[in-house]
Amino acid sequence: MELRVLQYFLAIAREESISKAAEVLHITQPTLSRQIKELEEEFQKQLFIRGNRKITLTKDGILLKQYAQEILNLTEKAQRELLKDQEELAGDIYIGGGESATMRLIMRVIVKMQKMYPQVHFHLFSGNAQDVADKLDSGLLDFGIFFDPVNLSQFDYFTLPGKETMGVLMRKDSLLAKYDEITPDLLKNESIILSEQYIVKNEIAGWIGGNERKLNIQVTYNLINNPALLVEEGGGYALTFGNIIQLHDDSPLCFKPLSPRLEEGIHIAWKKYHVFSKQSETFLELLKEEVKEV
């Protein structure tokens, strides 16, 4: 399996047409068809469903698309690292994490590094803990930001200052807005919007004194911005960290912490035994300096 063939495969998946993909790739349609046929024979799997108007991916094709994109991304990353000028600090740093006000610390370090080394470029990925861990483990990220509860035994990491407070995002005119803190009993009969992460559900289960099924979970999410719109429309109460959604005086929403309090630590992690690029090593050093100042 050659990288070139994976690029052909992704072009067809994107264009949903062999003829259009051939035009984009500047090769003949018979050549492209032959390459894809040989790829299917190599895997002994059908990768595309040929329709009258467009081509769609099979289940195996969808799986290959995911891996093919990761393989090509890693290849491009390796090429940039190996071909760059070693005398000047330059290159790319990939950072992933969940949505949190704590990410402001990371952004301050990025700004500082941009001023010092303008040839270093940053790529930010937002996702839940599992998304970030998968990309970190596969080498698509240099660093991952994680919030408790999380199992980081497969990574090296250090803990960042501060904690995130778990609470409830709600409308200001909702029935629960009159309370300063939200107890389990107050939520038991309400429509709940909760993170889809299993480990978060487990913690909420412990907080409520049993399991999360005691809550009426109507919607799950991986990132909070869209669910916040649902809360605005009266779609329920969202359990999330405070300070993620900026709540101004004229905002229809408010945030109330849980009682008993749930406060989560924050960690930055990287692959064990990882050989850092010079720019990643410099970023980590600057971050540690910033943490000392905090």
From TrEMBL:
Q: Locate the HTH lysR-type domain: which residues?
A: 1-58
InterPro entries in the record: HTH-type_LysR_regulators, LysR_HTH_N, LysR_subst-bd, WH-like_DNA-bd_sf, WH_DNA-bd_sf
Transferase as a keyword? no
> Pfam families of this UniProt entry?
HTH_1 (PF00126), LysR_substrate (PF03466)
UniProt keywords (A-Z) are:
DNA-binding, Transcription, Transcription regulation
UniProt superkingdom: Bacteria
Asked if the keyword Transcription regulation belongs to this entry, the reply reads yes
- Give the similarity note: Belongs to the LysR transcriptional regulatory family.
PANTHER family xref list: HTH-TYPE TRANSCRIPTIONAL REGULATOR YBHD (PTHR30419), NITROGEN ASSIMILATION TRANSCRIPTIONAL ACTIVATOR-RELATED (PTHR30419:SF8)
Full protein name? LysR family transcriptional regulator
